[in-house]
Structures are given as structure tokens and as C-alpha cells.
Amino acid sequence: MVRSSSRGEVSPGLWRREAGTVVRRAGALPERAPASGAVVAEFRIVPAPTEWARHAHLLHELVWVRGGTLTSRVGDRVFTVFEGHGLWMPAGVVHAGRATEGARFHSAFFTPDRTPFAFGEPKAIAMTPLLVSLLTHLSRTDLAEAARLRAEAVVFDVIEPSEHQLALRLPGDPRIDAIAEALLDDPADGRSLEEWARWLGTSERTITRAFRRSTGLSFAQWRQMLRVHRALTLLSDGLDVMSVSERLGYAQPSSFIAAFRRVMGTTPGAFFGPVAPSGDVRNSVSGGENTGLSA
Fold first, then answer.
1. Left if phi > 0, otherwise alpha if psi is -120 to 50, otherwise beta: which for 113?
2. pTM (predicted TM-score)
């Protein structure tokens, strides 16, 4: 079943849907071991913004994109996957996702009992040129069994979590969940802590404590992290810094650049600099999950 959303429709825990977003169930995916080896790799181009409903796989999955971004929600975390990084999804973990229009979407599925390592939870993976080349090689359908097994052995040796696990942790606290969902819907919402407290009929102190307890961040830090996550998608789509800063509610581009630097460790211009001749990006991420922020 496929349907297109109307403008402004919101998916719980993900960004506001773009007009024309296609919503799909996960289907036509490998759900059993290949005849030989442990890895099934494939790629496809997403012609329109595409969202996958909540689902899980019987195999481990590694996804990465080129020419766009992928957003995935896993429980109380939202992962933003952009060029140079991938996301490992363990078998059986329920998740939902969305890819931007035109993204070249790659995936590799790993048979659990033939994979000599295990990540017990979703992990950002460093998509090095070697790993990408190996998985592209394994997407071929004409590989001899011996060649496939040799390539897989190298994949098992080189696949590693990224040094930086960039994930936005959602509060999961009924006292403040409405704030989180409203900001996911509209990251530019600039209401103050006092205004949010009045809207919820609670106190600023309650909101502050709830954010600290559930996310490890102050409200201001958490909103800053959320805006930078959204900025990654907008910048990957080719928007300029001024347009992104306006969309995210910053009064001046310099304020957005400063916030981006606090989270990512570099400016947007440096982070989304020229692509290397190989087509592999860009700068690695600085800052870990819900970290690296100032008040």
C-alpha cells in the first residue's frame, strides 16, 4: 500500500512531511539468509521523499545514502544519516525511516548467525571508501561463492562504529513530550521556556528538570541539537546557510553558524565543503549523542 501525504502532515517523532511524501510499508526485503555467504547488498534511488512505516527485519541491516539524507526513529531516538555515515539496525529492532527526494539509498543485510560480530543497538557506522567499495562489490549478482566469501571477510574486518554517534534523544516523558513533538513539527518555534510552561499549564522548573532527567540536556541545549539535526537534512538538500537559518528560527545566519559549530565542531560551510574526487564526503561529525552543547 502506497499513499501520498497532504502538506503539513506530521509523523510522530519525525520531521513534518514534505508535500508529495510517499509512505510505504517495508517490503521486498531479504528476510532469510542468502544461498551462500552472509551479506545481501543493494541500492535504489528514491524518486520522491519516501517514508517507511514502523517495521523490523529478521536480518541485521546497514543503510547509508548519497545525495540526500535518511532520518530514522528508533524508540526514543532520532538518527540523522548523511553522506559518509551509515546506520546499523540490529535484527528485530522496530524502526521507521524517511529518505529525502533523489537520495541514492544503499542497504546491506547481514545474516545474524553468519556475522562474527554483534551490535546490540543501532549504531552510526563510518562508511569509509573501502567499506563502500566492498559492499558495492557484494551487490553484484554474478560473484562466485569464493569471491563473495573473501569480500565478506574483509567487510567483517573493516566495519566499525563511527567515532561520533549523532542521535537526538526524545524525552519520553509525558510532562514534556508535547514540546518535543511540536518542535519536531516546527523547529523554528521560538517560544520561551516561560511560554511553553504556560502552554502546558506547568512550571518552568518542572520542564527544566524533565528535560535534564530524560535527555541529559537543558531545554535550550536540546532545542539547539534538534535544530542542527534538521539543518543537516536541509543543507544536504542544497539550501544555503541563510535559508536554513531562517527556516530554523535564527535571527541571524551568524547565530545559526555558531550553534552548528557548537554541535558539529565546525561551520556548515566547512562541514559541507567540496566532495572528494572519489565522491566520498566530507568531514566527519564532531559531538556525540546529545553532547557537545553549551547552555
1. alpha
2. 0.78
CA distance 32 to 41: 13
Residue 256 to residue 252: CA distance in whole angstroms: 7
User: Does residue 169 have a pLDDT over 70?
Assistant: yes
pLDDT tens by residue, 64-97: 988 888 889 998 899 988 888 899 999 999 999 8
Residue type, 39: V
CA distances from 161 to 62, 71, 81, 136, 193 (A): 11, 18, 13, 19, 36
- The cell for 29 is 526485503
> In angstroms, rounded to a whole number, what is the distance separating the alpha carbons of residues 20 and 41?
28
* Model pLDDT, residue 81: 84
> Has residue 125 got a pLDDT over 70?
yes
**pLDDT score at 232:** 87
